[in-house]
Structures are given as C-alpha cells and as structure tokens.
Amino acid sequence: MRCEVRAITREQHLDFVRARPSVSHLQVPAWGDVKEDWQPRNLGWFDADGRLVGAGLALLRAMPGIGRSLAYLPEGPVVDWYDRDLVEGWLRPMLDHLKGLGAFAVRMGPPVVTRRWSAERVKEAVADPAAHRLADVEPSAREERAEEVAGALRRAGWRRSGEAGSGGFALGQPRYVFQLPLAGRTPEQVLNGLNQQWRRNVRKAEKAGVKVVEGDGEDLGTFHELYLETAKRDGFAPRPLGYFRRMWDALRAEDPGRMRLYLASHDGETLAAATMLTVGEHVWYSYGASTARRREVQPSNALQWRMIRDAHERGAAVYDLRGITDTLEEGDPLLGLLRFKVGTGGEAVEYLGEWEYPLNKALHKAFEVYMAARR
Question: Which positions ≥6 away from 260 have C-beta within 8 Å?
Fold first, then answer.
C-alpha cells in the first residue's frame, strides 16, 4: 500500500492523536507553537480509501541564505513502522511531500523500541568496572522487529544521525530513556518497586513535612529561578522563562491536562519543581529543577513520588523519566542522574534513534559544514 501524504488541519491531527493510547508530546499539533523558530506542518497519511492512517508534526527551519529548509519530525511520525512496505508506502510519500515544501534534508525519530534493561540489570552494569556503555550490556528484552526497521531504512538511504555519511546536526531527542511501567500495578506495588533508598527518602520527606502541590502558570517564575540555579550547578545552558510560558500556554490550550507544574516546599521555601506532560496513557517528567539547600529533607524524591502517584491515578500506563546517559563510567557527570532514575525500579529503554535523509546532497553537505562551524 502506498499512502498519500498531504497537509491536514490541526483538528484532524489532534483527533488522530486522541484516538491512540500513546503519541509523543513532540508530535502533537501544539508543539509546533512551542518551537517559535520553526515552521510547523501537520501531515496526514491517507490510504487508498481516503482514511487518515498516519500523522506527523514536521518542523521546518530555513537554512540561512538559500531559502531551503531542514525538516524535522521529533519522535515521529506516527505511522505503521512495522509495515512491510514501510519505505515506499509510508516514507517515500513523506519525503516527496517535504521536498515539495522546500526541504533539502529530513530528520525523524522513529518511536520504535529496540532493547530494554531492567533496573537490576542496569544496577549490576553500573557496579561492574568492565561495563563501559549500556549498549554493550546484555538487555533484559530485545525487539527483533526493530532491527528489520533499521535495515529497511539503511537500504533506502537513510542514515542514523552520528553515523558516517550522516549530518549529525545539533538537534535531537534522547535515544536512551528510563521508564517506569504503571499499567496493571497498584500504588502499593509501585511503591514497593522503588529501591530501599528511594523508599527511605520518600518517608524522610514526609516525616520532615515536605509538601508537594500542583502549581499554575503564576508559579512558572518560581520554577525558573530553581531551574537557573540547577543549570549553573550542573553546567548546562538554560532555556529562558519565555520558553516555559509558551509551553504552558500552547499545550494547555490544546488540552488542559497536557502540561502540569509541581512544586515541593519545606517550611515555606520552594526547594524543587518539575513539569509533567501527558498524552493519552503516556506521562513524561519533562523539566526538573532544585536548589542545593535543605537536600537532607529529600524534596526531589517527594516531588517525583507525588507525580508518579498522580500519573497512576489518571490512568497512565507508563511514567517516562526521559533521557539517561549510555556511559557507565564512574566519572561521567550524568551517572548520578541515572542512579536516581534507576531507583524507581523501572527499566532503561533504547529507541531506534534519529535518522537523516538528504533530499539534496550538496545542500545537506553545506549544512553539515555550517553546523560544524557553530560548535
């Protein structure tokens, strides 16, 4: 089957998302309003009977000086990735459509899981001096069909970002994430699945009187102050407050429950805060922030446990703690964050990663040079 790809309305796109149990928050129409430097395009895949069978949010960004664009579908599109006719039936029509919109290259992130590692397996790997990368550790489960998808993409000329022959431009979503399964579990079972240190910290926070509340848009300023402190402490470039206000307004206008803000306080001082995103049965811990003060009362554990409980109560099948490092070296500054997430008792999950296709090889090469000069 060869689909027809054409523009769809936001309403058509949103109806398609609502009909599915899980779609990335980066593939909802409102995400195009968040990324103000990109031009959003809502794409629909139609079968021979005219039915909408796939959808995607494509973000277009013009390359300086030439008027042609890079097209990016973060964690998308939402199509049948396991269809035997994936390349010609689903992806080729997408490439043709995006080329018609002036794209010189396409980057996408197939929402296809390849491997999973249990919390215990990750814990053992972190403690093993011979284990240097998660990718080299035997997984607890492997999705064989994912390799078939990867093989089909390579044969069609797609290249995984970062591989030889790909641009590997400075964009991208995490290939490795940590997820806590909630479906079919009671809150008590989820609590008992936390490791001993996590349970101890949750109890300590409760005993100390840490209070976690759900905030509103007026509390974004408080969140951002903690976020700036976190960025300075951890050495990353922070996003401006306007970005989070734009997220709040755009996502909640699309669905009031799409974005939530939580704050943890002790003796009247806010010590930690985090944003939570929801699409269908999938919940993401999106951005987190905390102060170095009063860490002994464990506000971050209290905050996460409240968010996990709320996600469970609202029917979430998975609580996604987002990106983790693939490096298991003791000196890696992100290893502490991995240990924190492993304490939830969930699982490390590897996705297929992001893939690139040059529609115009000369312009794609020029773009590589441009991006390399900016680094």
Answer: 214, 275, 276, 277, 278, 310
